[in-house]
Amino acid sequence: MKKILLISSLFYFTIIQLNAQGVFCHPSIAADCVNQPNYIDSVVTAGAVQNFSNAGTNCNTQDNNYAFYKYFLVAEYRLDSFDLRVALNKTTLSKIGVWVDWNKDSIFSSTENIYTSVAYETGVTIKVVVPSNANLDTLIMRVRTAPAFTGSCDPSSTGETEDYRFLVLNDVSGIKNINKQAGFKVYPNPASDMLTISLNHSANYVLELSDISGRVVYSSNMVNTKTIDVSNLQKGNYFIRLKNENQSFIEKIVIN
């Protein structure tokens, strides 16, 4: 059972828009995936704090068969893990590669390659382990298919490239006691109309409510307690975050 999403050490929950981290390379593909059907048909995560399912995507012929699915986000703690399932179109045997920009330098280095096929395959399920030094931010995860490659940006005769968003959370020892002492509470959860956020001390915080794409839908200053109306928001998963110069707390909530 996953631990509650409460983070007591300071980190930056950056809202990423397209190319906000810098321009990631788009591998050159000679043939589009309609004429040469080598493409990624689904990418699904399971067992993470926040999962996504992007299935039945078929072939993307734009920009060298490249797609940035910025509204699909997986979130996981440092040193924890989840399953990543990648499936290709059923008629193609190809190589699969997965990278995560752990240090957020807009480059997928060889040390950030978490999987590369040894043999040709139509799909794979791999375990993604978040390293202890992963940047505490929203990063980019890349999934590729091609007949052969050694890196995330190698040109290829056929294939497809997809990028996803990856939120790294800090899981520190004793976090439950720290948050208990701070009295950080968000209730009710799930919520449908009014949502209350509270702390048992009088520090000044910035309160942000973000959807799973990282878009801030509500922002305000807070001391001790704040009650907000969420009745006009779309149903789904959100993140509540409190931050100041010394501390940051975050919790996943559901609006129904």
Summarize the structure in short.
This protein has two domains: 130 residues, Immunoglobulin-like; 81 residues, Immunoglobulin-like (Sandwich), CATH 2.60.40. The chain has 256 residues and is mainly beta.
Q: Which regions have little confidence, pLDDT < 50, spanning 5+ residues?
A: 1-21, 173-177
Percent helix among the residues?
Answer: under 10%
Q: Can you identify the CATH class of the largest domain?
A: Mainly Beta
H and E string? EEEEEEEEEHEEEEEEE
- Percent of sequence in beta strands: 35-45%
Instruction: List the domain count as a whole number.
Output: 2
* Second rung of CATH, namely the architecture of the largest domain: Sandwich
> What's the tally of helices?
1
What is the makeup of the main sheet? 5 strands, mixed
CATH topology of the largest domain: Immunoglobulin-like
**What structural category do the secondary elements indicate?**
mainly beta
What integer is the average pLDDT? 83
What is the molecular shape?
elongated
Strand order of the largest sheet: 3-9-8-5-6
Number of strands: 16
Distance between the termini: 22 Å
> Nearest-angstrom radius of gyration?
20 Å
